[in-house]
Specification:
The chain is α/β, with parallel strands linked by helices. It has two domains: about 120 residues, 2-Layer Sandwich (60s Ribosomal Protein L30, Chain: A); about 160 residues, SPOUT methyltransferase, trefoil knot domain (Alpha/beta knot, 3-Layer(aba) Sandwich), CATH 3.40.1280. Helix content is about 35%, strand content about 15%. The protein is built from twelve helices and twelve strands. It has a seven-stranded parallel sheet, sandwiched between helices. The chain has a five-stranded mixed sheet with strand order 1-4-3-5-2, sandwiched between helices. Helix 7 packs parallel to helix 11. It is elongated and about 60 Å long. The protein starts with 12 loop residues before the first helix and ends with a helix.
């Protein structure tokens, strides 16, 4: 019985197989049946090792949503890997067809057991992609997004980092600067949490945050619980760079001194602070509220 996230019609298996054969003739599909295969070993390393990803300049995208987000933003990925059962999912079949249009994507087929062992997630959906990590200048952003930046210092939790990237993309912050102490932005866990936001943002890893803050032509707003000014009393129109710190230690003294303004997020009760992802979301959406009113309200709907 199918319990996965995609629509699935068991009676359509032969039709899906025929479609798969039409997209890629058997001679063009590279089937892997051994863990000793060099490509398979590379696949496993990309999912587990930040050092290997940096050396290869490649990221491992797991799941149809991530692969499709990459394709829409940057074109078909370098390589697709599909499981024997995953190729029969209607959504995956459609994605394979879309990626095949350019004729440049390599396709590998893995038995289900091998695919599960290579996948970096607990419940793989049946498709992965190997894609070059795009340089920041390869990401096309709307000119209006250049006025907001996010500076992240030692954000070590991959889920928090991915969530911050997702909020940044949703609120128009194009440039994200990560200190050397942050989690690997292109790890599978961060990619999954960001849900495709990577391909809408210019991500600058190992950044000198103090240098970025000093060179930024606008206000640098540091979020810190000790600040006297409430977020909701700050004026956030115009060029703004938000600085968010480590989940436990907060921002360093150097970055606090480089900031032009300090703000806190008002909270009721005895709660001391929010985690980094929640704090970033509150601040970024408050800026969006101040600078870009809901178009539905403006239209009177």
């Amino acid at each position: 019985m199918h319990t996965g996230p995609f629509p699935w019609n068991p009676s359509a298996g032969t039709e899906a197989d025929a479609e798969f054969a039409r997209i890629r003739p058997a001679s063009a599909v590279k089937r892997i049946t051994s863990r000793d295969n060099p490509f398979y070993r590379q696949l496993v390393k990309l999912g587990k090792s930040a050092r290997h990803r940096r050396a290869a300049g490649m990221a491992l995208l797991d799941g149809a949503h991530l692969v499709e987000a990459y394709r829409r933003a940057l074109g078909a990925p370098h390589t697709l890997v599909v499981s024997a059962s995953g190729r029969r999912h209607e959504e995956i079949a459609a994605l394979l067809a879309a990626c095949a249009e350019g004729g440049r994507t390599e396709l590998y087929l893995l038995d289900d057991a091998l695919f599960r062992q290579a996948s970096p997630v607990d419940t793989p959906t049946g498709i992965m992609a190997l894609a070059p990590i795009p340089p920041s200048n390869a990401i096309r952003v709307h000119p209006g997004m250049e006025s907001c930046r996010v500076l992240l210092e030692a954000i070590q939790d991959p889920g928090n980092l991915g969530s911050i990237l997702r909020s940044a993309a949703a609120t128009g912050a194009a440039n994200i600067h990560l200190s050397a102490g942050c989690a690997d932005a292109w790890s599978p866990r961060v990619l999954r949490a960001a849900m495709g936001a990577h391909f809408l943002l210019r991500i600058h890893e190992h950044a000198d945050l103090i240098g970025v803050a000093r060179q930024f032509e606008g206000r640098v707003v540091a979020a810190t619980p000790a600040a006297a000014t409430s977020l909701y009393r700050a004026r956030l129109a115009g060029p703004v760079a938000f600085a968010f710190g480590n989940e436990g230690a907060g921002l360093s003294d150097g970055l606090l001194q480089a900031a032009t303004e300090h703000i806190h997020i008002p909270m009721l009760g005895d709660t001391e602070s929010l985690n980094a992802a929640a704090a970033a979301a509150v601040c970024l959406f408050e800026r969006l509220r101040q600078t870009d009113p809901d178009p539905r309200q403006a239209a009177g709907t």
